[in-house]
Design a protein that fits this description.
With about 260 residues, the protein is of the alpha+beta class. The protein has helices at about 5-10, 15-30, 90-100, 115-120, 130-135, 155-160, 180-205, 215-230, 240-250, and strands spanning about 40-45, 50-55, 70-75, 105-110, 140-145, 165-170, 175-180. It has one domain: Class II aldolase/adducin N-terminal domain (L-fuculose-1-phosphate Aldolase).
């Protein structure tokens, strides 16, 4: 019996599935080039345990993370599973804020990509220049930078700014996405990251913008809200996640250990 198989015998089937999905998300973040060495973090609530969630061991690269290596912590930051690693304090503050205040949210993802941070540093943030941007703007909010996120008091302000949105631009810092599932949070991050890359690409061209009329913006944002809702024709992550797992399996199946 392998160490991973032995570990699996000591957690519920629901927790193991959550671990596999989260480990897959870490590997996909690495595959798409969104990592920042040991920085940033993804977390998921432990099914059936409202006050516990899984997060990365602080010391492993995202490409090294497996289902069994993920660390279980409670809302106070106490480590509840065997590990040789600590948890990033800033990661705990940001993620616990959402998990504590939003029982409807299972997964939180945070990145420091060049494109995401590049847009987060712009005063006007994500601009309504492309169809991709309007998809994201439909569910985007902003949180002002307060320094490295180790102050527990920031949690209340972060959750307040997030509201019922799925994307939070952390000004001068990066991007944060949330979802009812790992799949939903990951695909929102993909969409937000891509919109940011398109904005920077346009800005670097120096060309004059073909602006989208305000009424077309309004209609497009509303259509996106309807289409991306759970009852819409393209609920975020439902179709994309199985395809992403197939892609990952063709490259690396180590996340399942």
């Amino acid at each position: 019996m392998t160490a991973a198989e032995d570990f699996r015998d000591h957690v519920s089937e629901a927790e193991w599935r959550a671990r596999v999905d989260l480990a897959a998300a870490y590997r996909l973040v690495d595959l798409f080039g969104w990592t920042d060495l040991l920085g940033t973090h993804l977390s998921v609530r432990v099914p059936g345990e409202e006050d516990q969630f899984l997060i990365n061991p602080y010391g492993l690269l995202f490409e090294e993370i497996t289902a069994s290596s993920l660390v279980k912590v409670d809302e106070e930051g106490n480590i509840l599973s065997p590990t040789d690693y600590d948890v990033n304090p800033a990661g705990f503050v940001i993620h616990s804020a959402v998990h504590m205040a939003r029982p409807d949210i299972a997964c939180v993802m945070h990145t420091h990509t060049t494109a995401g941070t590049g847009v987060a540093t712009q005063k006007q943030g994500l601009l309504p220049l492309t169809q991709h941007a309007l998809t994201v703007i439909a569910t985007t909010a902003y949180h002002d930078y307060e320094g490295i996120a180790t102050d527990l008091e920031e949690r209340e302000r972060l959750v307040r700014d997030l509201g019922d949105n799925r994307v939070l631009v952390l000004r001068n810092h990066g991007l944060l996405t949330v979802g009812r599932t790992v799949a939903e949070a990951f695909v929102w991050m993909y969409r937000a990251e891509r919109a940011c890359r398109m904005q920077l690409a346009f800005q670097q061209s120096g060309a004059e913008a073909m602006e989208i009329p305000a009424e077309v913006q309004r209609v497009t944002i509303e259509r996106n809200r309807e289409a991306n809702a759970p009852g819409g024709h393209r609920p975020i992550g439902v179709k994309e996640w199985p395809a992403l797992l197939r892609k990952l399996d063709r490259v690396d199946q180590g996340y399942k250990q």
